[in-house]
Each structure stands twice: as C-alpha cells, then as structure tokens.
Amino acid sequence: MSEACLSPKPSRRSDVAPFLAMDVLSAAARLEGEGRTIIHMEVGQPSAPAPQLALTAARAALEHGRLGYTEARGIRSFRERLVRHYRDTYSVEIDESRVVATTGSSAGFNLAFLAAFDAGDRIALTSPGYPAYRNIIRALGLVPVEIEVGAETRWCLTPDLLEAAQKDGPIKGVLVASPANPTGTMMTPQALSELVRYCDGNGIWFISDEIYHGLVYGTEQATALSTSHNAIIINSFSKYYCMTGWRIGWMVLPECLVRPVERIAQSLYISPPELSQIAATAALDATDELELVKAGYAKNRELLLQALPELGFDKLLPLDGAFYVYADTRRFSNDSLAFTKAMLEEAGVAATPGADFDISNGSAYTRFSFAGSNENMVEALTRLKNWLA
Ligand SMILES: Cc1ncc(COP(=O)(O)O)c(C=O)c1O
User: Fold this and answer.
1) Which residues does residue 216 pair with via DSSP β-bridges, in sequence order?
2) Which is the closest atom of ligand 1 to the Cα of 322?
3) Region at 253 (left for phi over 0; alpha for psi -120 to 50; beta for the rest)
4) How remote is the CA of residue 9 from the centroid of ligand 1, in Å?
5) CA of 37 to the centre of ligand 1 (A)
6) Crossing angle of the two packed helices 374-388 and 287-310, in degrees rounded to 10
7) Averaged over 304-316, what is the pLDDT?
8) What is the pLDDT of residues 85-136, one digit of tens each?
9) CA nearest 217: which of 265, 274, 179, 171?
10) Alpha-carbon distance 320 to 179, whole Å?
11) HSE-up (13 A, CA, CB side) for residue 203
12) How far apart are CA 97 and CA 205, in angstroms?
C-alpha cells in the first residue's frame, strides 16, 4: 500500500476534553493495585446500594419476567408514577404524555439538545459547571457559551449575565443545574423563576437539570416547571435514588417536544432498559430508606464544614445541596491539578481538580465529594491533617 494512502481519522467533533475526575479514578485504581488504600472523594456517586424496594422489584421481574423493549418513552406505569411524584413533591400537575424515561440524565441531554437545537446554535452554561454539558454540546455540533459565575451572584446564572452574553450572538438555550455540580450551590426559587421567565420572554429554551433534587440541606428546592411548562426538565435516579449503574432517568417536556424526542429516542436508544424502569418505579416509594442515606450525607457535610477550615480550606462555596465541597485551594497551590495529584499520591485521598469544571479559573479550586461513608470522611480528614502538617 502506498505511503500516500489516506487513513481515516476520528471526527473533529469527537475531540472533546477528557473527564479529569475519571482520570483521577484511574490513577487511584493504579495505586490500589499496588496495595495502597485510597479514600475516594473524586467521583460523585453514592456508596449506598439501590433502595431495597427497587431491588425487590427488580428480583421479581428477573424471576418471572421477560425483559424486552418498551415504548421509547418508557412504560406507562413508570410515567404515571412520576406524575404523582410531581404532584406530591412540588404540587405541580403534569400530563403523563409529557414524561419520557431516559437512559440516565445523560441520554436526556442528548435527546433534548437534538430535539430543540440545530447545528451551530449557541447554548449557555455556567462556568464552573458539569463538564459533560460542554462536551455533549460540542459533540453534537452546537456551541457552548460558558458564562462565568462567581460570589457576586452566589455562583448562579442571572438574566443580566445572560443578556450580556446575547450581545455576542443569540443564545438559543440555557442549561442550569440547581443544586449545581461542582459548586453545590442552589438558586433560590425566586432567582430560578426570574431566569426561566427571562428565557420564556426571549424565545430561549430553558433546560433544568434537577438531578440533585432531594439532596438539599435546609434550603428550599423548586422545579422550573412551577414557573413554566415550556421548561425542559431533566432528572435521574443516579444521585438521590442511589441508582447510578442502572442508567435510568427521565424528562418532562413541553408538549411540542414530546413527539420529536420520541422519534429521536426510537432511533438512538429504542428504549431505556425495562428492568431499570421497573426498579426505578419502586424506588420512588423508598423515601424512608433514602432519607436515611441523605442523613448520612448531611452528617458528612457538617463534619467537613467544620473540619476543612481548621485544616486551612477556609474558602468554601455555600453548600446548599448535592454532595460536593468546592474549595478555593490557592492557599496550598495555584495549580489544583498538581495539588490533587500530590494529595492522591502522598495522602491517599482522591479529589477532583477544578479544571474539570472551569477552564479559566479551575486551577484555583478542588472538588471533594462527600457521598461516601462517614468513616471514610473521618479517615480522609485525618490523612489530610497529617499530610498538610
Ligand atoms: C449535574 C449532573 N448532571 C448529570 C449527570 C449525569 O448523570 P446520569 O447520566 O447518571 O443521570 C451528573 C453526573 O455526575 C451530574 O453531576
């Protein structure tokens, strides 16, 4: 074969940044392979198993059920149970026809972006923010518009910031998580409502990632649906419900997007796994068990809020919800990538460098997840204390 023969290349759109939290996880696994014990505070996943009710339902389905494709939008009983969830949790009435089951919230983003936007459309995100947003947006040929948020707005997006970003070109959509990853901050119901109304008034799709709902510590949580039924709601069983590996989530859509999403879902995924839909339906009744898990996070949160400042991590963002502490770590290093690498290798504590979430200012920050056990938090603090001494 001649030298001049052109070999095929990966697409330009696939050239998205790696997820550093996963790289930290791999480095931690390498150290564990060498016999070290590592305290994992890098990935945002609950250490608790799926609730018993979900496991019992799944076992029964495996025992006598034939698991097959379902409707692309999910099984009806699952969607109907979610309608009740909105009534009970938020006093919001929705029609079952607007609920779509998805393969985790990650599939929900793909479907929502494909149904609402055309290639080249500009989508606003906060920075810091969850890195997969910008990667999915880029991979789909859309343009992420990262808007820096800081202490002035309590790390939240506002209509003014959005208005300013519109000067560089029209924004077609806004994606916001509240509580947010990595900051753990929440928009007040009023701030959320103002932003949703701004979007409605300016023909902008508002996409509300409500995946950390339920994990809120003494702050009021609101769904964007309370303000507008044009909002696209994305949620998941991965966080509050402790079902990361089941890959199951849902969306509530404005009526005009239901059929477009259904058509795309039929071709992209056919349907979410039936077993996970059955288990997730049962998980919606597991409040007692899940509130106990949440009480564990609340205890971890209290512990870290008290102990981290004593170790010198004295600039923490307001910790309203989720299970993350986002700490300004400039006191220790201006390069959080190097800082977290040393922390992992020398102290055996894995945390995520802020560069994952914020390309401009992330090197000043480190994210610690407190989704692990209380014993692990105590051990992490002891190790950090010895390391920093
Ligand atoms: C803010 C946010 N949204 C979405 C996801 C994706 O979750 P899943 O696809 O498991 O529902 C995550 C995962 O960490 C997240 O932090």
Assistant:
1) 321
2) 16
3) beta
4) 30
5) 27
6) 10
7) 93
8) 999 999 999 999 999 999 999 999 999 999 999 999 999 999 999 999 999 9
9) 179
10) 7
11) 4
12) 20
pLDDT on residue 18: 80
Please name every residue paired with 243 in a beta bridge, in sequence order, or none if there are none: none
CA 106 to ligand 1 center in whole angstroms: 6
Ligand 1: lining residues by beta carbon, under 6 Å: 44, 104-106, 130, 177, 181, 209, 211, 236, 238, 244, 249
C-alpha to C-alpha distance for 81 and 173, rounded to whole angstroms: 29
Distance CA 279, CA 51 (A): 9
Shortest CA distance to 280 belongs to which of 66, 96, 85, 47? 85
What stretch of H or E contains 139?
helix 131-139
Residue 2: is its pLDDT beyond 70?
no
The pLDDT assigned to 21 comes to 77
For tokens 């009021």, the residue is 220
Query: How close is the Cα of 211 to the center of ligand 1, in Å?
Result: 7
The tens digit of pLDDT for each residue in 21-47 reads 788 888 999 999 999 999 999 988 999
For residue 335, the model assigns a pLDDT of 94
pTM across the whole model: 0.95
Residue 3 has pLDDT above 80, yes or no: no
String of DSSP letters for 149-204:
--GGGTT---HHHHHHHHTTS---EEEEESS-TTT-----HHHHHHHHHHHHHTT-
Share of the chain above pLDDT 90, in %: 89
Residues 324-336: what's their mean pLDDT? 95
What pLDDT score was predicted for residue 133?
95
Q: Which residues contact 335 (CB under 8 A, 6 or more apart)?
A: 363
Bond prior to 179 in cis (omega within 30° of 0): yes
**Substitution site in 105, 111, 210 for ligand 1 pocket (most atoms within 8 Å of beta carbon):** 105
Residue type, 325: V
Strand 324-328 and strand 365-369: the pairing is antiparallel
HSE value, Cβ hemisphere, 13 Å, CA-based, for 269: 25
Q: What is the maximum alpha-carbon separation in the chain?
A: 69
- What confidence score (pLDDT) does residue 77 get? 97
| Contact of 174 with 197, CB cutoff 8 Å | no
